[in-house]
Specification:
The complex is a heterodimer. By secondary structure, chain A is mainly beta. Helices cover 12% and strands 48% of the residues of chain A. In chain A, the strands form three sheets. A six-stranded mixed β-sheet of chain A has the order 9-1-2-14-13-10, with no helix packed on it. A six-stranded mixed β-sheet of chain A has the order 3-7-8-6-5-4. By secondary structure, chain B is an all-alpha fold. Chain B has two domains: 8-138; 168-457, no CATH class. Chain B has helices spanning 8-12, 14-56, 62-76, 80-136, 154-307, 315-453, 459-464, 470-489. The chains are: A mainly beta, B mainly alpha. The interface between A and B is medium-sized, with 13 and 12 residues.
C-alpha cells in the first residue's frame, strides 16, 4: 500500500500533502490576528492545547484568500496551520511527474520551492504535491513581519 | 209739386171765427168782472158781520163805535169800479149775443154761395181731367214723348206732376242703361278673373297630383323604412336576448372565477405553507449537509489518525482522541436524529398540504373547466351579438340611405308645395279681384234699386218681367231712350 495524500484546494490551486503529516482537519478554528504581520498570516490559534500559527495558503501563493478549513500540519521541522478553501479527501493515487505551467507555480516572490513538480491526478484535477518541510523552512514562510523583504 | 190755394169758402170762414172768438172773449171778460164784484161784496159782508158781532158783545167803546159807524157807512156806499165792471159785463154780453146772431146769419149765407161755386168748379175739373186723359193716353203704349198741358186747375197740377214723372222716367231709363253697361263690364272682368282662376286651379291640380304621387312614393319608402325599422327592432331584440344570455353566462363565469379565486387563495395559502415547510426542510437539509461535512471531516480525521496511529506518542493520547471522536459522533447522531424527526413531521405536513392542494387544484380545475365552458358560451353569445349588431348596422345603413332618398323627395315636395302656395296666392288675388268686381256689381244694383224706388211704377208689367225677358226689356228701354232723345232734340 503506497503513501496516502490529502487533496485540497487553496486560492484556485489544487494541492496535495502526505496524509501522515496532517494531524487534524479543523472545520472552524478560532484564530487571533497578530498585528504587524503579513496579510497572508492569519494569526495564532489553539489546537489541542498548543499554539498553532495559521497561514492563508491562497494569499501566500499570491492568489485569492482562502476561507475554508484549517489543516494542522505536524512535521518533523515544526507545526503549522494551513488555511485552505476545500478539502477533497484522501487519495491513494500514485504520484506522477507532470510538466506544469510555471505561472501557476510562481509565488509573489517568484518560484516557490515548496511546490514540487510532482502531482497527483484525481477526478481530472492535478494536485501538486506540497513539500511541507521545504515550506515550513522556507524564509518566505517564516518571515511574517510586515514590510520585510 | 201740388199748389196750395185758398178757396172762397175758406176765406169766408175766417170772419165768423173771429167773431166767435171776440164773443167768447167778451163773455170771459164779463165773467171776470162779475166774479170780482161778487168777491168784493163777500169781503164787505164779512167785515160787516164782524163789526155787528163786536157791537153785540159790547166790547167797543165810544171812539170805536164812531170808527165802526164810519166803516159801515163806507160799506154802504157802492164802489165805482164794481159798477163800471157790471156795466162792461152787461155790454159785452149784449155784444156777444149780437155777434152770435150775426154769425149765424153770415154762415147761412156763405153756405149757399159756396154750393154754387163748388158746382162750377166740379164741372171745370171734369173737363180738364178729360183733356188730360186724352193727352196721356199714348203713355200706355210706352211712348215717352207725351206731354200734358199745365193749367191753373187741379188737372193742371196733375199734368205738371205727370210731366215731371215722365222726365224722371227718362232719367231712369238712361241711368239703367248706364248701369247695365257697367254691370256688363264688371261681369266681363269677373269672367276674366274666373278664367284666370280656372287656369290657376288647373295648374294647382296638376301640381297637387304630382305632389300626391310624390307623397305616395314617400309613403312606400316610409313603409319600407318602417319594415326595416321593424327588422332592426327584431335584430336588436335578438341582440338584446343574446346579450342577456351572454351576461348570464358571464355572471356565472364570474361567480366561478370568484370560486376559483377563493380556491386559488386557499391553494396559495397551502403553497405558502408548503414553501415554509420546504424552507424548514432546506434548513434541516443544510443542517444535515453540515453534519455530513462534519462527518466527512470526522471520518477523514479518523482515517488520518488511524493511519497515524502507529506514530501515536502514547496510549493516553490515543484514548483522548477516541473519546473526543466518540463525543463528536454522539453529538452528530443527536443532531441527525433531531433533523430526521423534524423532517418526518415536515414531510407529513407537506404530504397533507400536498393532498389538500391537489384536491383544491382538482376542484379548481373543475371550476376552471366550467368557467371555460361558461366563457365559451359567453363568447358564442357575444359572437351572435356581434353578428346581430352587424346586421343591425347594415339595417341602419339601409335606413339611412332611404332616409337620404326621403330627404330628396321631401325637398322636391317642399318645392312643389311652394309652387302650389304661389299658385294659391295668385288664385286668392284673382278671387279677391272677383270679389271686388262683385262688390262693385252689388253697389251698382243697389244704385239701380234706389233709382227705381223713387218712382211708383205700375205693378203688373214688372211682375210679368222674368229673367228670360230681361234682355228684351233692356233692348226696349234702349229703344225708348233713343226715341226719347229724338223727342227731346225735337
Amino acid at each position: 500500500m503506497g503513501t496516502r495524500h490529502l487533496l485540497f484546494g487553496a486560492g484556485g490551486l489544487s494541492l496535495a500533502v502526505p496524509a501522515e503529516l496532517v494531524k487534524t482537519i479543523h472545520e472552524q478554528l478560532t484564530v487571533q490576528a497578530v498585528a504587524g504581520t503579513r496579510d497572508w498570516f492569519r494569526g495564532l490559534g489553539v489546537a489541542h492545547g498548543k499554539l498553532l500559527p495559521v497561514t492563508d495558503m491562497g494569499a501566500f501563493f499570491g492568489r485569492r484568500s482562502s476561507t475554508g478549513h484549517t489543516l494542522e500540519i505536524a512535521a518533523s521541522v515544526g507545526m503549522s496551520g494551513l488555511q485552505v478553501d476545500t478539502v477533497y479527501g484522501l487519495s491513494n493515487m500514485p504520484i506522477s511527474e507532470i510538466p506544469l505551467n510555471r505561472q501557476n507555480t510562481a509565488s509573489h516572490r517568484g518560484e516557490n520551492p515548496a511546490l514540487s513538480s510532482r502531482a497527483i491526478v484525481q477526478d481530472e484535477r492535478v494536485h501538486r504535491l506540497l513539500d511541507v518541510a521545504a515550506l515550513l523552512q522556507s524564509p518566505a514562510f517564516l518571515n511574517i513581519a510586515e514590510n520585510s523583504h | 209739386m201740388p199748389l196750395v190755394t185758398s178757396t172762397p169758402r175758406e176765406q169766408g170762414s175766417g170772419v165768423p171765427f173771429l167773431l166767435v172768438m171776440l164773443s167768447v172773449l167778451a163773455l170771459l171778460v164779463s165773467l171776470l168782472g162779475l166774479t170780482r164784484t161778487v168777491t168784493v161784496a163777500n169781503d164787505r159782508l164779512a167785515d160787516l158781520q164782524l163789526a155787528w158781532q163786536a157791537v153785540q158783545n159790547d166790547t167797543v167803546e165810544g171812539s170805536e163805535l164812531v170808527a165802526t159807524n164810519r166803516q159801515m157807512e163806507r160799506m154802504q156806499t157802492p164802489l165805482p169800479a164794481l159798477q163800471k165792471a157790471a156795466y162792461w159785463s152787461l155790454g159785452l154780453v149784449i155784444l156777444s149775443i149780437v155777434l152770435c146772431a150775426w154769425l149765424l146769419i153770415s154762415m147761412r149765407r156763405t153756405k149757399q154761395s159756396q154750393s154754387q161755386v163748388d158746382d162750377e168748379r166740379h164741372k171745370a175739373e171734369q173737363s180738364d181731367l178729360m183733356k188730360l186723359t186724352d193727352e196721356i193716353a199714348p203713355l200706355a203704349n210706352g211712348d215717352l214723348r207725351v206731354r200734358a198741358t199745365v193749367t191753373d186747375s187741379t188737372a193742371g197740377s196733375v199734368a205738371n206732376v205727370f210731366n215731371y214723372a215722365v222726365s224722371e222716367l227718362h232719367w231712369l231709363v238712361g241711368t239703367m242703361g248706364h248701369v247695365a253697361a257697367k254691370i256688363s263690364q264688371a261681369v266681363d272682368r269677373s269672367r276674366h278673373s274666373a278664367d284666370s282662376i280656372a287656369v290657376a286651379c288647373t295648374e294647382q291640380s296638376s301640381e297637387i297630383h304630382r305632389s300626391s304621387n310624390d307623397l305616395l312614393t314617400m309613403s312606400g319608402k316610409m313603409a319600407e323604412l318602417s319594415a326595416d325599422a321593424a327588422d332592426a327592432s327584431v335584430a336588436a331584440q335578438a341582440a338584446a336576448d343574446q346579450a342577456e344570455r351572454g351576461a348570464d353566462a358571464l355572471s356565472a363565469g364570474l361567480n366561478r372565477l370568484f370560486t376559483i379565486r377563493d380556491e386559488a387563495d386557499e391553494t396559495t395559502r397551502l403553497m405558502h405553507r408548503l414553501v415554509e415547510n420546504v424552507s424548514a426542510i432546506d434548513e434541516r437539509v443544510t443542517t444535515i449537509q453540515k453534519v455530513a461535512r462534519r462527518t466527512d471531516l470526522l471520518a477523514l480525521n479518523t482515517t488520518i489518525r488511524a493511519s497515524a496511529g502507529s506514530r501515536a506518542a502514547s496510549v493516553t493520547d490515543a484514548a483522548a482522541d477516541l473519546g473526543h471522536l466518540s463525543d463528536e459522533v454522539a453529538q452528530l447522531a443527536e443532531v441527525l436524529g433531531q433533523a430526521t424527526r423534524d423532517i418526518g413531521t415536515l414531510t407529513s405536513t407537506i404530504s397533507q398540504d400536498a393532498s389538500d392542494t391537489v384536491q383544491s387544484m382538482e376542484h379548481t380545475n373543475a371550476e376552471l373547466a366550467a368557467g371555460v365552458a361558461q366563457t365559451r358560451q359567453a363568447s358564442q353569445a357575444l359572437e351572435l351579438i356581434r353578428m346581430d349588431t352587424q346586421a343591425l348596422r347594415e339595417r341602419v345603413f339601409a335606413m339611412a340611405d332611404k332616409t337620404v332618398q326621403q330627404t330628396g323627395i321631401l325637398r322636391q315636395l317642399s318645392e312643389s308645395m311652394d309652387l302650389i302656395n304661389s299658385i294659391t296666392r295668385k288664385t286668392g288675388e284673382g278671387v279677391s279681384a272677383n270679389a271686388a268686381s262683385l262688390d262693385e256689381l252689388l253697389d251698382l244694383a243697389s244704385e239701380l234699386q234706389r233709382g227705381l224706388a223713387d218712382f211708383q211704377l205700375p205693378d203688373k208689367p214688372d211682375a210679368e218681367v222674368t229673367a228670360d225677358d230681361a234682355p228684351k226689356t233692356v233692348k226696349t228701354s234702349l229703344a225708348r231712350r233713343a226715341a226719347d232723345r229724338a223727342v227731346i232734340h225735337e
